[in-house]
Design goal:
six-stranded mixed sheet; alpha+beta; 6 strands; globular
């Protein structure tokens, strides 16, 4: 999934998700308004589309995978710049996946939401 996201292959990312996936963004995150999002279309419209249109060079880089069987935790970093302000983020994340029959059924994001809010407001690392 992370490789597909890096290539911009949203179809491949979505194919790794169960059709009725429950996707939850971190509390107070920019795209957490109506979480959990249920199904491919809601994830696409409420998470992936805004990221693609509002951010420059957004990367989601996994650093460590923890295999807990049906539960997988991934630690890593988000890096990118908010287009409207030029402000950059370099925020840690933890992604918790629940997997059944090879597909993600539940996703929970944890990240530094403050960095993202600062970037949107233009107060964090503008032009850096």
């Amino acid at each position: 999934m992370y490789g597909a996201f890096a290539r911009g292959d949203v179809s491949a990312v979505l194919s790794a998700l169960d059709p009725s996936v429950e996707w939850s963004e971190a509390e107070n995150f920019l795209y957490a308004k109506d979480t959990p999002y249920v199904g491919h279309q809601e994830v696409l419209m409420n998470v992936f589309a805004p990221i693609a249109t509002e951010w420059d060079h957004m990367t989601v880089v996994p650093d460590k995978f923890v295999d807990g069987g049906d539960t997988i935790v991934v630690f890593g970093h988000y890096r990118g710049a908010y287009k409207a302000t030029g402000a950059r983020v370099d925020a840690q994340f933890a992604h918790v996946f629940q997997v059944r029959n090879g597909l993600v059924t539940h996703f929970q994001q944890f990240t530094d939401t403050f960095q993202f809010k600062e970037a949107v407001s233009g107060r964090r690392g503008a032009g850096a």
